[in-house]
Amino acid sequence: MSEKIPPSSEFDRRNFIRTAAGATAATAAFAGAARGAGIDPDQKLKIGFVGTGGRGTGAAAQALSADDNIELYAMADVFQEKMDKSLESLSKNKSLEGKFNVPAERQFVGLDGYKRVLDSGVDVVLLTTTPGFRPLHLRAAIEAEKHIFAEKPMAVDAAGVRHVYETLKMAEGKPLSIVAGFCWRYSHSRREAYRKVMEEKLIGDVTGIYATYYSNHSKPHLDPSLRTDGMTDIEWQIRNWYNYTWLGGGGLVEQAVHSVDKIGWVMGDQSPISCRATGGLAAPQPGGNIFDHYHIAYEYPNNVWAHLGSRKTPGCFNENADYVRGTKGTLIIGRGSDPYIEDNDGNLVWRFKKPRSGEPNMYQVEHDELFASIRSGEHINDGDRMIHSSMMAIMGRISAQTGKEVKWEEAMNAGEDLYEEEGGMTWDEDYKPSPVAVPGVTQIEGIGGMEKSQAAVNDILKRPWLKG
């Protein structure tokens, strides 16, 4: 898909900056963030909306709520019924009345719909399709010089991250705002909590992290009997996108990447040295090729390890929490309470004080700050950290799928390219994704030297639980 990415030492110097929690959200994370002239409040901003599913519809509502002089101007999806449902949902929101200007001729259906949205005269584009298409859409949006909201993750494989990295280099120096859907970075309570850790050092030096993302199935695979005659491989897989690695990246890359992002955040967005992971498929689905559970251990300097447990299984213990332990105490986020810090004796040191009006919705905050930056010309660019966190999650999946310890440089230069027909895939194409990975058998170019002989692979495949 693209040239190899620089080694971590050089890549880090390209501003995987230490984003301070509690700082203003307009953190120019990529070196290319530039001040522009801004856009006069009297000028109406036109929004293009690409990928009109549930999360996308939420993002569209938040974008339309973020500015007084704004309108939804163009939309694209591969399914007309998705656009119809999205518009119906948005139109029920009375606070958005008068902000819709999307006639049928600016509702584009098809894999190339994103191009037609970008050509329609929009100022800002919301990229909320399945993540497998994100690198392609980001490139086109930057080439068209549009302001961008891009839902996480930024790619589903290392080749995609390299592609996005090149795209962000193209954006350097341009007066464009690029906000990523890593929403916790826009949470007031999380910003304050990480400021207490990173700036005020209330827990001392960080010695370890344990993050959890345990939940039920998010999007179980559709019953194969629902596949109608004439439905192509591409259509069926896109309708089941979450369950195919090339489209969604799997649960770790598509959802638990939020927890990965918070690990990266509190570690100053420095690259981990390596990671070791386990994972598998405990409850097989009637289709798809993703794992439903992972445990990732990221190694950092000074013998600091960050652990992430992720599981998508009904009937089990559920939790979405972060435990950041330091030499003087522990930051605890989650468990049904506001963030708080205890010292090593269990005494409360700090707790986030929620305003009487409640904490602002982080999903709304990311759009409020995006559109404020567009108006002011003080542009936000989440570039580096949005690809750094995406790459960390991909690194963890690679380790789990192969059963290898993976170094950062190996992961970033891995030969995995799940969407090899970039820009050329057609709706009628037969496309058979790879089977579910088997740790110890599955190999990825550049990982662990690919030293296993075919004889060894064949011997492993004789294991009875792998037959059939």
Overview of this protein structure:
- By secondary structure, the chain is an alpha/beta fold.
- It has a domain of 202 residues: NAD(P)-binding Rossmann-like Domain (Rossmann fold, 3-Layer(aba) Sandwich).
- Helix content is 31%, strand content 19%.
- It contains 15 helices and 15 strands.
- The strands form 2 sheets. Strands 14-13-12-11-7-10-9-8-15 form a 9-stranded mixed sheet. It has a 6-stranded parallel sheet with strand order 3-2-1-4-5-6, sandwiched between helices.
- Helix 3 links the parallel strand 2 and strand 3.
- Helix 2 packs across helix 12.
- The longest helix is centred in the C-terminal third of the chain and has 20 residues.
- It is globular and about 65 Å long.
- The protein starts with 7 loop residues before the first helix and ends in an 8-residue tail after the last helix.
- The N terminus and C terminus are likely disordered.
What is this entry, summarized?
By secondary structure, the protein is α/β, with parallel strands linked by helices.
The CATH topology name of the domain at 8-185 and 363-386 reads Rossmann fold
Number of H/I helices: 15
CATH homologous superfamily grouping of the domain at 8-185 and 363-386: NAD(P)-binding Rossmann-like Domain
> Helicity level, as a percent range?
25-40%
**N→C terminal distance:** 33 Å
